[in-house]
Write a structure and sequence with these properties.
Layout: E1 2-13, E2 16-29, E3 33-38, E4 47-51, H1 53-58, E5 70-81, E6 84-92, H2 96-113, H3 115-167
Antiparallel strand pairs: 1-2, 1-4, 2-3, 3-6, 4-5, 5-6
Helix pairs in contact: 2-3
Length: about 170
Amino acid sequence: MAIEIPFSYRVVQDDIVMPETFRGTILDISYNGMMAELNQPLPDHSEIKLSLDTLLSYTRAADIDAKGAEIYARITSTRPMNGRKVSGLKFICVGQRNKEVLMHCMLHIAHTDNALLEEDLRRHEREAIKTTKAWRLAKLITIITLLALSSVLFYLLSRLNEALNAVH
């Protein structure tokens, strides 16, 4: 979704978040990443920690508690676009809570800007819920199967023990 939202970020070097804060502009955002103009030029594969506070204030998401909500991103490429140096960023290390915050922000932007994108985001959310339910069902089936196999094994061992006792 094409937008222009200011945000702040900090550079991550050797798994350490540097203290200096930089500003950037989000130009396009999706569930997996974003295109942004960064005020601090960084090489490809650099990592940043971006704050969602500005994005939340832009979407007026006062009903969601996201204090300190931050997402890590990796720069995948940087190229000129319309007279700007634009970096593609892929979200990495996004916790479940931050995914919810990000989804909420994107749904709000989509609602105000593009109804089709809103439906696409909701479809992704439904798919994520289905995947979670399928995973839970698979775990439950595995546990039940293991319990059944354990019972069979216990039965066979007890029969074997009885047979060995009968031989002696």
